[in-house]
Write a structure and sequence with these properties.
The structure is a single chain. The chain has seven helices and two strands, in the order H-H-H-E-H-H-H-H-E. It has 259 residues and is mostly helical. A two-stranded parallel sheet has the order 1-2. Helix 2 packs across helix 6 and helix 5 runs antiparallel to helix 6.
């Protein structure tokens, strides 16, 4: 983290003043480390290929090799837009972002991964809230966030999958194509397809989690806000059931669940 310099216009005349200035400077530095909006890690900590691991994890979870090719702009954007949809909703309290707690996530095809559809609802209900209305508001905000992310992700996915189809066709016409080049091209196409499938599976899981949470809120704290939440969950479910693009499956879906 870059050093923080504070302009000093007057001479400090006492140890007390120096202590106060030191305290202020320390607070400014800590404030500079704080997380970004919505509890996300601040942009300062990010880099262009910070989500490259997603393709490596997706293919690696199936015992397939990853590609050594650099990411294209579209492929990088696909991964950037996918991450908020595969990260469990409401999984990081805002204070954790101060410490840059960004973590890679396991792909759903790993056998040890269990999906607990109750986890989101239990966290939403158990953590302190000023009123039950704030729990409904949090649920509604999380579903709205997913609806907002849906179109940008699939718009990029359409571009990536379309270009991969052209890449696949061109493999037969590239002169002196080496085996490593062919393998890297195939691996990259598999990575991209698996990331789209990963998001599709996570959307289905999120919808299941949202419904479980809403059902528990309704029986514990009935409120008219429940109808708004139900409508939004239904809209997200309808979109997820008919995505603009469906990648050709490299493997079948991972359906192991708990709860």
């Amino acid at each position: 983290m870059p050093d923080t310099f504070l302009p000093i216009r007057t001479r400090l005349r006492s140890r007390t003043s120096a202590s106060l200035l030191t305290l202020f400077a320390t607070g400014a530095v800590l404030a500079g480390c704080s997380g970004g909006d919505f509890g996300r890690t601040r942009q300062d900590f990010l880099n262009d290929d910070m989500h490259r691991w997603m393709g490596v994890e997706a293919t690696g979870s199936l015992g397939l090799p990853s590609s050594q090719f650099q990411l294209t702009d579209n492929e990088r954007q696909l991964r950037d837009l996918a991450y908020p949809l595969i990260e469990p909703p409401h999984s990081r309290p805002a204070w954790k972002s101060v410490f840059g707690d960004y973590q890679p996530l396991p792909a759903p095809w790993r056998q040890r991964v269990l999906f607990d559809r109750t986890a989101y609802g239990r966290l939403l209900i158990d953590e302190p809230h000023r009123s039950h209305a704030s729990r409904y508001a949090q649920l509604i905000d999380d579903v709205r966030d997913d609806l907002t992310r849906f179109e940008p992700f699939y718009a990029t996915a359409i571009q990536v999958i379309d270009l991969d189809k052209k890449r696949n066709t061109s493999l037969a016409h590239v002169s002196q194509l080496s085996p490593p080049e062919h393998a890297d091209a195939v691996a990259r196409m598999q990575e991209n397809t698996l990331i789209v499938q990963w998001v599709q599976q996570c959307l289905e899981r999120r919808i299941s989690s949202y419904r479980w949470a809403l059902e528990r809120l309704v029986i514990q704290a009935p409120d008219n806000m429940a109808s708004d939440a139900d409508r939004l969950i239904g809209e997200l479910a309808a979109r997820a059931a008919h995505p603009p693009i469906v990648g050709q499956p490299v493997v079948g879906p991972a359906l192991t669940t708990r709860g």
